[in-house]
Design a protein that fits this description.
The complex is a heterodimer of chains A (174) and B (484).
Chain A lengths: L5 H6 L1 H8 L1 H12 L23 E3 L14 H5 L5 E7 L7 E9 L8 H5 L5 E3 L14 E2 L1 H6 L15 H7 L2
Antiparallel strand pairs in A: 1-4, 2-3, 3-5
Chain B lengths: L10 E6 L2 E6 L4 H7 L23 E4 L7 E2 L10 E3 L3 H14 L17 H9 L17 E2 L4 E3 L9 H9 L5 E4 L6 E4 L9 H6 L5 E3 L12 E6 L8 E6 L4 E6 L31 E4 L2 E4 L2 H8 L3 E7 L4 H10 L7 E4 L21 H10 L6 H9 L5 E6 L7 H10 L5 E6 L12 E4 L8 E4 L5 E4 L12 H5 L4
Parallel strand pairs in B: 1-5, 16-17, 16-18, 18-19, 19-20
Antiparallel strand pairs in B: 1-2, 3-4, 3-5, 6-7, 7-10, 8-9, 11-12, 12-13, 14-15, 14-20, 21-22
Helix pairs in contact in B: 2-3, 7-8
Classes of the chains: A alpha+beta (174), B alpha+beta (484).
Amino acid sequence: MILKKDLYTEHGYLKGLYLALKITLITMLNNIFAKKRMTINYPEEKYFYSDRFKGKHVLTVKEDGSLRCTSCMLCATYCPADCIHIIAANDNDPAVEKSPVSFQIELLRCVFCGFCEEACPVDAIRLTNEYEMSGHAEQEWVIDQHHLAYRKSLNGGKGILSTVDDSNRLKLRL
Amino acid sequence: MSSEIIADKKLVKFKWNDQVIEAPEGENLLQAALDNGIEVAHYCYHKGLPIAGVCRMCMVEQTPGPPRPFPSCNAIVAPEIAVRSDTPAVLEAVEWTLQFHLVNHPLDCPVCDQAGECGLQDYYMQHGQYNSAMEDQKVHKKKVQDIGRGVMLDAERCILCTRCTRFTEYVTGTYELGIVGRGDHAEITVHKELENDYAGNLVDICPVGALTSKDFRFKQRVWFLEDVATTCIGCETGCAVNISQNEVGVYRVLPKYDHEVNGHWICDDGRSIYKHVSGAGRLIGPLENKSNLFIPITESATANSLRGNSQKFILSASLTNEDYANFFSAFKGEKDHVALYRLPSMGKEFDGILKRSDKNANTRGAREAFAKAGMDHSETGLQDFLDNLNAQDVIYLVVPEIIYDEDHFMTLLKKINKAGKKVALTTTDNLQALDAFDYLLPLPTFLEKDGHLKNFQNRDRKLSAGRSYGASNRDIAFYANWLN
């Protein structure tokens, strides 16, 4: 379908063609000769998303390296995809009381909406800008607390500190 | 508590806000409002306990009447009075009271088991929603105290409503709990570990998360649970209970108010009756004993190996009336091929509150059904039955769901050793005693069937079915004549 018939009738075939495909031609020539290109040589080069990107989950840790999560189940309650499974248990530290023995996220079910992040009262779960996820067996898509908190990409396995640590919180007597 | 005393009093009309309520004269004003579906914020008032009037949340204003708001729990219904709980003075009083309750509250809802059914959360949404005006540091008290009998105490969360101290004072009379200190430093504490058989009720009556259950601790959030109103099968009292469950399993037993039988409470034994219903010990299909290793087997294979012999039954005394009736109408064998096994009596005949020594949930119903079918339900009948066993017999023993004394049950098992084949009709497979059987066949638990039990008052108590955790839906009547 020719939208602007008058390009052909007014300017003739070649000029009309040039005017119609002007943007396409410029982009093509830019891509061939100019240095800046939109495409990258993935996976040798990686694209960097901003911190607001909702990618793979991370569980934050406290200064002593233990999980920040208190397993209050608000994320599991709020989750629209029902993909968070937590088993809570008694913690020996009376200042902590409750901590998860198992924290699993089914990545294939997750819709990366970020509601868990919103629901968390203690900044224990975040969505990172990590976007590369792959796996074969279904089991590889169910990630547990070790992967969520201590995978290599998070400070070399040491985990990400939450903004307000428990020790600070107790000092502030919030 | 007082409703029997004033039951014969005449009904009078009074006004609560704009609603005209009819209640017996002299009835508690707050209770009259609650009975008529009016939501009134309250912590310290509990129908089963004496009035304390300490939480100051149920304030009302009366015109004409006293010049300032007063707590409705400490007032009585009189004809033609008009009280309002929505005047600016009352609302302000309640808001400030709630603010004072929350001054030292640690706000650890994320780790608190009460979250979801907590009075502080409910009334904060109703009367609070202010920002904290607290500039000083909160007073911190001792958390995570195990005070015995499966109750955990967190003194910080307590709002000092004194429901629990009144419970140990007036209901059990054991006086373990008390309040020490004054002002901000006042806290609930025990002078010795809890030692009454009703300690679980402390958890239920606590309106906040100060007293929580050790058994239920951190297992599940309450908003994931649904309640089934049914009857406790722990003894012949037949208390009304709510059992909390979800698709994963059963989590706890709570008392349900029943004026005729148990009032507001249940005993601690009744709180553990749910444990065999779901989880690892639940028998979901027929099992065959191969040198003390139980291996799944199909129902038809079991039936084939049992066919051709005379079938004898020992029933337990905790099945429902309907189970007995269906069983006897389906049973075609001889009259002396059925006997009744009753669990032995334990403890005092009646402990003064709820517990009774007869641990069979339906002794009366069983005896009635046996007598109606012309069969012998006595101990001597069971003895004769056991003496007449021989190697050609297949004996089916209905294993009681709750066994307090496994030794007594073991002595019964020794006596049925003469039988050729022994089949247990059971809900669970994790009893040590079951190793003596050749086959285990599944039965529904008390939480998976509808029916009635006759309690110690000869009153029909209703069992209601909740979710099913077993794969088989065979009941006792099916096995009565299943080989023909």
